[in-house]
């Protein structure tokens, strides 16, 4: 049986074995909160670094790093069950915005919230200001946001900026 989204259910599990079932009165009560996953925006696809696709993602880049992507739309893609490969270019309307975090050696150093475009330049000057040790790996964390809903968070592979 399905339940509507965004509610908290009180549940009890009554395991059963060859000795019988746990009485309902003896079962511990647990809370389960449902989520509106179907309302969460899709993450972007076709993510590239300096115009290089995931399969060719560089281990090192010299100078500025430009992250680019194609928007995905759960509404537009949902019509007719249209499947779109993650590495396919797309021309969909963005639902909400994107938040991109820059991680250096796994630590968030800079956040770019409310993005609606399809690219972001992270300059070598910004990288140096965020952490002067240019030997540490850089990653981008991409979060699609639509109102109070966040979609699947994606983190890029590591690379070094020099």
Low-confidence stretches: none
Shape: elongated
Rg for CA atoms? 22 Å
Q: Structural class of the helix and strand makeup?
A: mainly beta
Number of helices: 2
Distance between the termini: 55 Å
Mean pLDDT: 89
Number of DSSP strand runs? 14
Share of helix, binned: under 10%
Approximate strand percentage: 35-45%
Order of helices and strands: EEEEEEEHEEEHEEEE
The major β-sheet equals: 5 strands, antiparallel
The oligomeric state is single chain
Please sum up the structure shown.
The protein is mostly beta strands and 162 residues long. The chain has helices at residues 74-78, 124-130, and strands at 8-12, 16-17, 20-21, 29-33, 45-49, 60-61, 65-70, 97-104, 107-115, 119-122, 138-146, 149-150, 154-155, 160-161.
Could you explain how this protein is built, in words?
This protein is 7% helix and 39% strand. It is mainly β and 162 residues long. The strands form five sheets. Strands 8, 9, 11, 12 and 13 form a five-stranded antiparallel sheet that branches. The longest helix is centred in the last third of the chain and has 7 residues, at 124-130. The radius of gyration is 22 Å and the shape is elongated.
Could you name the key traits of this structure?
162 residues, mainly beta, five-stranded antiparallel β-sheet, three-stranded antiparallel β-sheet, 14 strands
Strand and helix map with partners:
Layout: E1 8-12, E2 16-17, E3 20-21, E4 29-33, E5 45-49, E6 60-61, E7 65-70, H1 74-78, E8 97-104, E9 107-115, E10 119-122, H2 124-130, E11 138-146, E12 149-150, E13 154-155, E14 160-161
